[in-house]
Design a protein that fits this description.
The protein is an alpha/beta fold. Helix content is 20%, strand content 24%. The termini are far apart.
């Protein structure tokens, strides 16, 4: 059985030589109302929580009806193309851990998932694509390649199979700016979500580059008034492919990639789920 694949969840420079996910900015931002000043101090329950929630990003798998092509992409057998994990892969990884798993395409959806918990929450995991400066809760994985020789620098016109593009960024791309000035719907939902956070609640972010400058982690910690952890290194998804490379057998393992986008030689753990990534030396936790 072949057991090889990794997908980089990070921003690569927008050049034709890129390998990995490429994130294009879609300008759909709109003015937002001023957010609450400072951390949301005093919010949350006084008792510890026990419920665990994992929110995964909304990225449809473009090869869901073509498992043979997906397997070949995983094995690196398709020229000028690569594989990127969709919601199905992230969900499989999340289901390897305990707790409720839900697809959350926006910050508002994350809040609603928390506020709708039947009990107090002890841990919220966010598993999605990201880049330095923010995490994207929804987007598109390109199913085809395209080149526009007349406009080669336009990332919306030039892309490879497997490139990841963030979409609806004004509501789905979580940044320090969004968290400092949330829109009206987020502000309305926030108190209910904070009330469901137990005194022991923590947030953990598993999206490539989400912890590089720690600014997004610090903004999340301030927003929720809870500790937030994130991995500075690149998250790799390792899936099992059948010997004939016709289909994926399992897609629930993660590991860590090095700067060369290959498995980190100093951290060789590839295991089901994601919590083992917390033991990596580049996993950081910030306080409100």
């Amino acid at each position: 059985m072949a057991d090889r694949v990794q997908s980089v969840l990070g921003l690569q420079p927008a050049t034709d030589a890129d390998w990995g996910d490429r994130h294009a900015i879609e300008l759909q931002d709109k003015p937002t109302a001023p957010g609450p000043a400072g951390a949301n101090k005093g919010a949350g329950a006084a008792q510890p929580g026990t419920a665990e929630i994992t929110c995964v990003g909304a990225y449809a798998n473009p090869w869901a009806t073509n498992p043979g092509l997906e397997a070949r992409l995983v094995m690196g057998k398709v020229p000028n193309a690569h594989w990127s994990p969709g919601t199905d892969t992230m969900t499989a990884v999340a289901n390897a851990e305990k707790g409720t798993v839900a697809t959350c395409p926006t910050l508002l959806a994350i809040l609603k998932q928390i506020s709708g918990s039947s009990g107090l929450v002890s841990r919220v995991n966010i598993l999605t694509h990201g880049r330095s400066g923010g995490i994207g809760m929804q987007g598109e994985i390109k199913a085809t390649s395209q080149r526009d020789k007349s406009d080669p620098n336009d990332v919306e016109k030039n892309f490879d199979i497997g490139d990841v593009y963030f979409r609806k960024m004004s509501e789905s791309f979580i940044t320090t700016t969004m968290l400092a000035a949330p829109d009206a719907a987020v502000q309305q939902e926030l108190p209910g979500a904070l009330a469901k956070l137990g005194s022991n609640a923590v947030f953990q972010v598993y999206a490539c580059d989400s912890g590089v400058d720690e600014s997004t982690l610090k903004a999340l910690a301030k927003f929720f008034n809870r500790p937030v952890g994130g991995l500075k290194a690149k998250v790799g998804y390792f899936v099992d492919v059948d010997a004939a490379a016709t289909r994926i057998l399992a897609r629930n393992k993660t590991g860590v990639l090095g700067l060369d986008d290959q498995p980190d030689p100093l951290f060789t753990i590839r295991a089901a789920g994601f919590k083992h990534l917390n033991s990596h030396p580049d996993f950081v936790t910030v306080s409100p």
